Amino acid sequence: MCLLILYNYFCRVTFVFCLLRWNSVFDSEAGSDVIFLVGPEQWHFPGNRAALADANSVFQAMLLGPMASQDTTIPFEGVDGRVFDNLLR
User: Fold this and answer.
1) How far apart are CA 64 and CA 7, in angstroms?
2) Of 75 and 7, the one with more pLDDT
3) pLDDT at 27
4) How far is it, in rounded angstroms, from Cα 89 to Cα 23?
5) What mean pLDDT do residues 45-63 have?
6) Fold for the domain defined by 2-88
7) Burial of 20 (0-12, 13-18, 19+ CB in 10 A)
8) Which of 5, 43, 47, 70 is most open to solvent, judged by the fewest CB atoms within 10 Å of its CB?
9) Which is higher by pLDDT, 84 or 18?
């Protein structure tokens, strides 16, 4: 019983830690290899191509597919910055 409680605790701590690290991916340029400029306000979102491609098939096609842009800055003009921020998180 005690081992189960400890295991459950460490799984929760690990999950929360992973969530915090995932959110920090889009708040810092450390480790990022792509920058999204979103909306008319030009919201600035750093990201990692491999992490985004692994998380979402649309990002996989857009960032790593045969027609993927090799630019480090990718504009999204028709998308609101708040919507894109929620999409990433």
Assistant:
1) 37
2) 75
3) 59
4) 6
5) 89
6) Potassium Channel Kv1.1; Chain A (3.30.710)
7) exposed
8) 70
9) 84
| Tokens, residue 9 | 């605790």
Output the six-digit token pair for 11. 């799984």
Closest CA to 41 of 89, 88, 72, 76: 76
- Quick count: other Cβ atoms within 10 Å of Cβ 30? 9
The DSSP-derived string for the chain is -HHHHHHHHHHHHHHHHHHHHHHHHTT--TT--EEEEETTTTEEEEE-HHHHHHH-HHHHHHHHSTT----SEEEETTS-HHHHHHHH-
pLDDT of residue 35: 92
Q: Where are the domains of the chain?
A: 2-88
Please check the confidence at residue 85 and state whether its pLDDT lies above 50. yes
